[in-house]
Design goal:
Pdz3 Domain, 2-enoyl-CoA Hydratase, Chain A, domain 1, six-stranded mixed sheet, 25 strands, PDZ domain-containing protein, endopeptidase activity, serine-type peptidase activity
């Protein structure tokens, strides 16, 4: 779960995200006292205890975990000085116990030799290099830092802008997706060697550089670019595409940021679609790793017709321990609102134990937003970067609307998590999964596309010539698109380069109290 801000103080309180809890491994904290062993010898051991003990109660697959003595969390402690690595190692091993019967591998298995879980992670709160923490605390609130663009090489000497964040200095200078980056500080670029790649990556770690870029009109110019903080628009592009005998609404959406950051832009886009009476929508989520469930719900309600009002959109399911009120570790954990204030409840402060974790109490139903009522077909563009809240929107609409997926297989993350502060760290471990109205939600391996298509980074968002968009237009106009489309004639495998971390998460901000 996302924290709106991360406290550096060792025993800090929760920073205002519903279903994110502060669990501090201090000497008087009940997490350590729950340990069946003697008191921990140091903070690292206490933190390892806490990681395991909280997982035993609130991890979604907690029933698959061994008992404390068998797992022996303190055995992960060492004097190497690499405490975070030790914690990550323990968390990884915890997440490898639950096995997906459909694959025979752990639900959180990423691949051979990879020692990071697919969903869960732990970070040091005070670390300025913690990219997931930075993204969690800033990006989803509408702020970003850096150069504001990402790169993909589609040839040894052909490096393109994969995307340019709207609102970034690069975007304001007219740089767009599909533009070709020729040189940095006068050095012509290629990826023929590791040294070439290291040079490009290194440029992103500097405060500024000069980029030589050729745009879609074959115009070449030098741009003096600086790394900075900036306010983003989460919408890459929205437009109405004029196709044969039809109008198609197109939305390229970057991240499910807070409603404060996303709502105005989304509502304006769908007002435009409603005015054009579009019957087909292309929702481009190729780089959208998720974000706030409240914003995903808004987008779903903007797409869906009012005839679905009152019907189930999705249900969040927690583990049986939490459903049955047996996660007693939450009793002393105070819940605070978005401003860090305690909430009075029955003459005392509201705690996380007071929240309702039942399926009935966590069912979201359709409630139409906007005036768009004419949509007959929804085409989602997906890649491996499409995750969490993006997949939630797709899964929620599938039972009710004609949904078609175009692109490549999505990430596969039907689970969300709580943020748990332990000493100077925050652990994000899978805590709930979502199912649609048909009880469907087993897309742990991702959604397979109905029509495969490359991520064609040589064309901008909304360009009808871009491969995935072209497939959608063909379908909307009654043409049969070719299978296995490719934007490249060569066998060169595209390579993403540069400093482009992505947040993958499904973040719940709403509060439901037990009745």
């Amino acid at each position: 779960m996302l924290l709106n801000a991360l406290k550096k103080a060792r025993c800090s309180s929760l920073i205002a995200v519903v279903l994110a809890m502060t669990i501090i491994s201090c000497t008087d904290d009940d997490t350590v006292n729950k340990s069946p062993r003697s008191a921990a010898e140091n903070n690292e051991q206490a933190t390892l205890d806490s990681i395991f003990l909280y997982a035993k109660e609130i991890y979604f697959w907690n029933e698959a975990l061994p008992e404390y003595d068998e797992f022996a969390p303190r055995n992960y402690s060492s004097s190497s000085g690499e405490e975070l690595k030790n914690l990550e190692s323990a968390l990884f091993d915890i997440t490898q116990y639950p096995i997906n019967p459909e694959t025979g591998y752990p639900y959180e298995y990423l691949g051979p030799g990879i020692t990071s879980p697919k969903y869960s992670y732990i970070e040091e709160n005070s670390s300025s290099s913690s990219q997931l923490g930075y993204l969690a605390a800033n990006k989803l609130e509408g702020e970003e830092e850096g150069y504001g663009f990402a790169l993909t090489a589609v040839g040894a000497e052909d490096i393109r802008m994969r995307y340019v964040t709207k609102g970034s200095p690069a975007y304001k200078k007219g740089i767009r997706r599909g533009d070709r980056l020729l040189a940095i500080n006068g050095r012509n670029l290629s990826i023929k060697s590791q040294a070439d790649i290291d040079f490009i990556n290194g440029a992103f770690n500097t405060d500024s550089f000069t980029a030589t870029i050729t745009n879609a009109d074959n115009e070449t110019d030098d741009f003096n670019l600086s790394s900075s903080s900036f306010e983003i628009s989460p919408i890459f592009k929205d437009t109405v595409i004029e196709a044969t005998n039809t109008k198609i609404g197109y939305l390229a959406y970057y991240t499910f940021s807070s409603l404060t950051n996303s709502q105005e832009g989304l509502e304006a886009a769908f007002k435009k679609f409603a005015s054009a009476n579009v019957k087909d929508l292309i929702i481009d989520l190729r780089y959208n790793g998720g974000g706030y469930v409240t914003t995903a719900t808004l987008l779903t309600n903007l797409i869906a017709p009012s005839r679905l009002n009152g019907k189930v959109m999705f249900v969040e399911h927690f583990n049986e321990t939490m459903k049955n009120g047996q996660a007693t570790i939450l009793k002393n954990k105070i819940y605070k609102d978005g401003n860090g204030n305690k909430i009075p409840y029955n003459g005392r402060d509201l705690t996380y134990y007071d929240l309702d974790y039942s399926a009935a109490g966590n069912t979201t139903r359709f409630e139409k937003e906007g005036t768009l009522e004419t949509v007959e077909n929804v085409y989602f563009i997906t890649t491996n970067g499409t995750a969490s809240s993006s997949e939630l929107v797709i899964n929620s609409l599938k039972p009710y609307m004609n949904v078609t997926l175009i692109g490549t297989t999505s990430y596969g993350k039907p689970v969300g998590f709580f943020g748990i502060d332990i000493d100077k760290y925050t652990m994000y471990i899978s805590n709930f999964r979502t199912l649609n109205s048909k009880g469907e939600g087993d897309y742990f391996q991702g959604f397979e596309p109905d029509f495969k298509s490359d991520d064609d980074v040589t064309h901008d968002f909304g360009d009808p010539k871009e491969q995935s968009i072209s497939v959608a237009i063909d379908l909307a106009t009654g043409n049969v698109p070719g299978f296995g489309r490719t934007s490249r004639e060569s066998s060169f495998k595209p390579i993403n380069i540069g400093k482009t971390p992505q947040f993958n998460g499904m973040i719940e901000k709403r509060i439901n109290i037990k009745k």
